[in-house]
Amino acid sequence: MGIQLLFCVETDDDSKTDWVYIKETLDHYYRLNNEVSLKPIYMSGKGNYKKGSTIREIRKRTNGFRGNGKTVVIYCIDTDDIFADPDRVKEFEEIQNYCGDRKYEFSWFCRDVEEVYWGQQVPASEKVQRSKQFRKVGRIENIPEETLRADKPNRRKSNILGVVDKYLERKK
Fold first, then answer.
1. Is 9 in contact with 77 (CB distance < 8 Å)?
2. What is the pLDDT of residues 137-147, one digit of tens each?
């Protein structure tokens, strides 16, 4: 009996940038084997978190795995400028509630995934190249664990390890 983790990410299927950082994190911190299935679901934008195409993809992947074990859905969302914009706070809370209502997990990156992993914002035109560079140079080795284990949104922090720790075994 295995486990399938579905990561709903903001990026699209062409650039796959968010998934690069998340996958590097998973590979670095967790014991992964044939009992663990990791799959990205590309939402092509945060606003598509409850769009029909996202819901259908979750359902399709869940139904395809049902006989093999448990499926956990994890939404991975950038907070954007949550500290400066009340609309961002409202959006964050709506997505968090949406996940809670469906028993989905909610992982956030403050302000965005690039700022968490690079320590600064990355221009949109450089995101694909920088994600490839991140993987190529093994930059995950230089990211302090506490950066990825925050309890609440704070600049350049994420809660991804706290979320995934519930389901996967850490490397020793």
1. no
2. 999 999 999 99
Does pTM top 0.85 for this prediction? yes
C-alpha distances out from residue 164 to 83, 84, 145, 159, Å? 25, 28, 13, 9
Q: Say if strands 157-158 and 105-110 run parallel, antiparallel, or are unpaired.
A: antiparallel
Q: Do the Cβ atoms of 161 and 108 come closer than 8 Å? A: no
Through-space distance between the first and last CA atoms of the chain, rounded to whole angstroms: 23
Q: How far is CA 86 from CA 90, 92, 159, in A?
A: 6, 10, 21
Measured CA distances, 78 to 38, 75, 111, 120, 156 (Å): 20, 10, 6, 14, 11
Residues of the chain with pLDDT under 70: 67
- List, as one string, the DSSP characters of 121-139: ---GGGHHHHHHHHHHTTG
CB-based contact 63:43 (threshold 8 Å): no
